[in-house]
Write a structure and sequence with these properties.
226 residues; mainly alpha
Length: 226
């Protein structure tokens, strides 16, 4: 194997330029180092000194201004896939957790006293029940579309931005629908909001997951901005 000087400096500079999932970044840097070492070994076998062989390998590999964007695009895609998988899995799971707690600790919802609730409230209630599964389906579909687009040459940065937009939209929709129900319930019968602690805990988990999705979506956009 070639020595560590020029190649390690190059890989170290590449490391500083890249942002994204640590394990994916480590794999990319290891692949780059291995390619450079192999090229340097080949040049050294042809009679070049160790340092000259490394410099030739680095020159052949390309300047960081050209190489780094390609690696960054791969990191953006990896983070985008993680974000969409998180959306597809955790949002419906937290919804199921809340439903199970509600049914165990509260049981079927009793009807409102007095006049029936307005149509918008009934629509929001139905939407709140279906939305987690719609969101999960959209995230899975986005993953499949992203893989298809990558085969047609769509850049990783573009795919990262699309994933970030999908995740952010899903989080905003889930929060908006949930807050509409909470606000409407508070106006119609505020006592319904005084639920057992396990049910409130499940609701808190739901919001924690949505915050996490929002953070992941923001990072998708940040990683795709370079």
């Amino acid at each position: 194997m070639a020595g560590a000087g020029v190649i390690e400096e190059y890989v170290g500079d590449l490391d500083l330029r890249l942002r994204g999932p640590a394990h994916v970044k480590a794999d990319l840097l290891a692949e780059a180092r291995d390619s450079l070492d192999d090229a340097a070994d080949s040049y050294r076998d042809r009679g070049l000194s160790a340092e000259a062989a490394e410099r030739r390998a680095v020159e052949e590999f390309g300047p960081l201004t050209v190489v780094a964007p390609g690696y960054q695009a791969e990191l953006a895609v990896a983070h985008a896939a993680t974000t969409l998988r998180t959306v597809a899995l955790l949002i419906p799971l937290t919804s199921v957790l809340w439903e199970l707690n509600q049914r165990f600790w509260i049981g079927p919802w009793a009807g409102f006293d007095g006049p029936p609730p307005p149509d918008w409230y009934l629509f929001a209630a139905r939407a709140n029940g279906h939305l987690p599964w719609v969101i999960s389906s959209c995230a899975v579909l986005s993953l499949l579309v992203g893989r298809l687009l990558s085969r047609y040459g769509v850049s990783g940065t573009t795919l990262g931005r699309l994933a970030g937009g999908v995740a952010a939209t899903c989080a905003v929709l889930a929060v908006s629908c949930n807050l509409a129900i909470v606000t409407g319930t508070a106006a119609l019968d505020a006592e319904r909001l005084l639920m057992p602690a396990p049910v409130l805990g499940a609701a808190a988990v739901f919001y924690v997951v949505l915050i996490r999705v929002g953070v992941l979506a923001k990072r998708c956009l940040a990683l795709s901005a370079v």
